[in-house]
Structure formats: structure tokens, C-alpha cells
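Before relying on records like the one below, remember that each one covers exactly one chain. Contacts with other chains, cofactors or solvent are not represented anywhere in the record.
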Amino acid sequence: MDAGRLLGWLVLSALAPGAAHLRAGRRRTGLVLLGCYAVGLLGVLAVVLATGDLGALIGSALDDTWLTAITVGSALLGVAWFALIVHSFVVLRPGTLRQSEQIVTGTLAGLLAVGVLAPFAVVAQTGWASRQALNSIFKDSQPDPQAQGEKLTERRQDPWAGRERVNILLLGGDADDHRPGVRTDSMNVASVDVKTGNTVLISLPRNLEEVRFRPGTPMAEQFPSGFRLPTDPGGGRSDLLNSVWEYSDAHPEIFGGKREQGAEVLMDTIGYTLGLDVDWYALVNMWGFARLIDAIGGVTLTVERDVVFGKYNEGLVKAGTRKLKGADAMWYARSRTNSDDYIRMRRQRCVIGALLDQADPATVLSRFNQVAAATKELIQTDIPRAMLSDLVPLALKVKDAKVTSIQLVPPLIQTYDPDWAKIRKLTQKAVRESTGAQPVTTTAAPAPAKTSTGAPTSTPTGTPTKSPKKADDSPTQGLTDGCGQL
């Protein structure tokens, strides 16, 4: 056999294990290798077909046991395939070639063995990184094994326990090394239809005053007339909606000495405010979010007008359409200079919409290590680890479903004197529209911002409806309505 044919059989053996052994006359070994290979392919195909769809397959693969199996299995398969190439080269008897040909074929065989090993190494490393990231973010308690088995059976029958929607509180926090406590400056509830993935994003202003707490709770007993504290020495207020988490954490005596009650209190308070049952929360560190944007290679946005930022207005995100790095995207979303909280909320919605559109699975997978590293630093949540196998398929549905939004801000809702009944009414209507019970309409964005001199500035608006809307109509918008209008 000449060098060309030897290399040809070696490559064929990499694709169909056992081919080189059959060529070398080792029939039994060759058939066993080919048989194992065929059984393995059929097994993978059976799993894919049994799972039913890509989302369910990915969700199942995120189970801790499966991730461990994928990591270990990929490493073992990689070593086995490497050994297979080496052994296939040996059985093809390269010693019959001239010395120069032996050197060339041996070098190429070594490169082929390493090349075959590389994909398995990538899969194993990705599986390990996934497991580490997920286990650092999602915490599960150690339940009773019998109870866990009963819950698993119920989840297989109906993972949502009869619920038509899942409500997740999405929070943007501003905590850092120089600021103690957690201030939730961005608060949105994503209400997701579990069948269709249709989602409405309900945005609440950070400066909502005299927040009411659910009757019978410790905070309601402490503040029976609403969340109200004396004005800060500097004239600011620490009794707005964005301070509920921080205040609850700072006063364990209200909860009988229990500490770290902030997340639970804020979830319950926002759920009570909207008339929804909030299932879980996810707190995103805003600057960790910037690292996530960098991890996926940036996000393309249309900046409507120059956005100034910084203590001395030294920073600038210029107007125009281009791919922004994480820091610029966050300043676009967070800057209050020559703006206000409501314009900032709209810009945050635009960033979320752009990420939802641009962070496709292929992009995430191609930059998985960077995404996993950024994610570990950025998210705090109470979503159970076991729910990921159901939430991932739902998230993929959301990407291709109808995503709308409603902002409970002036002039619709006055933050200094909120109409709580109206908030619940608007929320329920937005949820019905998202479900599909009523057509979705859009309206103008919030009231104009004011500059430092008090003069109003023009603000981008959503797509107007064809007919006038009543004051109590739901101002539901598409998630990116009003974004990118220069």
C-alpha cells in the first residue's frame, strides 16, 4: 500500500471507525468497531427523536446529571478516538513505506489524531463550564428523595402545575464595591404564556411612592399607610419602590430576626401591586450585564440622539446605528443626563429587545466560554436548578413569539400618587392582550423629559393607534416600538 492510500484509509477510519482494520484484514475487530459506532449513532438519533424538539433537548441537556455525563463521556470518547486513529495507523503497516513516506504519513496521522480529539475536548470543556456556571447561579435545596420523586412525576405530566403563565421579576441592580446594599433601579415583570411563549414586559418606575404591601405581612404592619420614611439629610428619599429590597435587608427585626428578606419582600410587593403571582426573580448586576454584552461581541443599536454620561458629562455615546460595546450600551440604557427615569426605562427596553433579537443560539455557542464566565458574575436568582429543563424550551419559544411591553409611568400612572386599582387593571388587560384575547395596540411613549433648566425635550414615541384611545386603555407596545427613531 502506498502513502496516499494509507492516508485515505486513515481518514475513512476517522469517519467510520473500523474501516482501516477491515482493510488490514482484521475483520472481527473492524466489524465490532463499526457495530459500536452504528449503535452509538442510533442511540443519539433515538434520544433526539424521543425528546421531540430542540428546546426540550437543550433543556434536558442542562440537567446536572446529563451535563456531567456529557463532560465525562466526551472526554472518554475523545481519548478513545485518538487511540483509534493511532491504532488504525499501526495496523495499516506504515513500516512497509519508504522512510521519507513514513515520516510524512506519521506526522499527518498525528495531526489527524489531534484534530479528531479537539471537538470532543471542546464539548467536554463546554459541558464543564456550563455545569460550573449553572451550579453557581441556580441553587437547589436537598429535598426528601420520595417527595422529589413525586414532584418529578408531576412535572413530567405538567411542568407548570396547571399555570397558564409564568411571571418572572427581572431586576437591574446597581450594587458595587463602593455602594452597600442593593438598589433595584430597573424592575420589570416578564409574564410568559407557557403554551405560546407570548410575553408582556411590565415595567415599573423606580420612584413609585407610598408603595402598598400585601395585608398581613410584616411590612404591611410596619407601614399600614404605605412605604413612607423621613426625607434623607440630603433631600433625597429612601422610601421609593427601588429601596424596598435594601430596606428589608437592613431591618431584620421587622421579620422576627430573619435576614436577607429583601428579594422575597420585593417579589411579593410587586406581585401585590400588579395583581400577579410572581414565581421567581432574577437580579442582574448592571455592569455584569455589560460584560455579557461584550461576551456576545456587542449589540447593534440605533442611538436616537447623543447620550451624555459621567460625573462631569465627560462621556458620550454618539447618535447613529452601530454595534456598541457593553459599557456604551449600559450608559445608553442608564444615563439620566438631559433625560429622566422614564426615558431611561424606554432605552433599557430597547437594549433588552436588541439582545433578545441578536443573541441567537449560534452566537452564544460560538462564544460560550465568555458568556458562561460573564453570567456567573451577573445573575442572582431563586429559580430552582431543576426548572431549567422546562424554562429553556420556554425561553426559545419567547424568542420567536410576540413580545410586547407596558410602562406604568407618567402620564399614565403618577408616581407620587399611584392609582393602585388602575395599575392592576392595566396589568390584567396587557396580560389578556398578550395571551391573544384582545388585539394589541400601541400608543405614545411617556411624557417628555425635562432638562436641567426645566425645559421639555422631545422624546421618541411608539407607533400611534389608528383611533383615539381612552385614558384607561392599555398602552401596550411592541418591545422595540419607538426604538431607533432618529
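Residues 325 and 444 are 29 Å apart (CA to CA).
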